[in-house]
Design a protein that fits this description.
The chain is of the alpha+beta class. A 7-stranded mixed beta barrel has the order 1-2-3-6-7-8-10. β1 and β2 form a beta hairpin. It starts with 14 loop residues before the first strand and ends with a helix. This is Nucleoside triphosphate/diphosphate phosphatase. Keywords: Hydrolase, Magnesium, Metal-binding.
């Protein structure tokens, strides 16, 4: 009898694709070549650096700065810590928990975003887009309630310096990325 081995998830140093979708199932955005820095049972931390991004309309662009990405299977948000000359800015997407298959890490983007500036100032973005899409695609009441609850969790994380907002988080994971990139260079020699 032949038994299939369970497929393993990505490991540290692997490169994956990230795909975001809209509630109706349409592809929203794709990031190529995100390096995995850490995986656990419920979370993946990765890094984008000059990563090719393709929009749903076919427009392509490349990220300008390194960004640490955080995805979780239980939280309805993901967090992008953008490392800029003037400090770290965060872009937080209210989104479904991620799923992972052989093709990509995937999630549904629910329009609402929270941006955190280097000085700690916070802005809720795209509430009008959320309202329009909620009406257009008939977001279930349960999804609306979950997203509102997770906005509160996210703001608590920001205010308490928890998870990706903690002191040292960006330094630790960016250093890990630099180490892994150096290992790759050494392996090619």
């Amino acid at each position: 009898m032949i038994v299939d081995k369970p497929s393993r998830g990505p490991r540290e140093g692997d490169v994956i694709t990230i795909k975001s979708y809209k509630h109706d199932g349409s592809l929203h955005r794709t990031w190529r070549d995100t390096m995995v820095l850490k995986t656990s049972e419920n979370a993946i931390i990765g890094l984008n650096d000059h990563t090719l991004v393709t929009e749903d309309n076919g427009r392509r662009w490349v990220t300008r700065e390194p960004a640490i990405v955080y995805f979780h299977k239980k939280y309805w948000f993901n967090i992008i810590a953008m490392i800029r000359d003037n400090g770290v800015s965060y872009y937080c997407n209210l989104a479904s928990p991620y799923s992972l298959d052989k093709e990509a890490l995937k999630y549904i983007d629910y329009d609402l975003d929270v941006k955190v500036f280097p000085d700690g100032e916070k802005h809720l973005l795209d509430a009008d887009e959320y309202a329009a899409h909620s009406k257009k695609w008939h977001y279930p009441k349960e999804v609306d309630q979950i997203l509102k609850a997770h906005v509160k969790i996210l703001v608590d994380w920001i205010n308490e310096g928890k998870g990706p907002f903690s002191k040292g988080y960006v330094d630790v994971w960016y250093s890990r990325y630099q180490y892994l990139m150096q290992q790759r260079l050494n392996d090619r020699r």
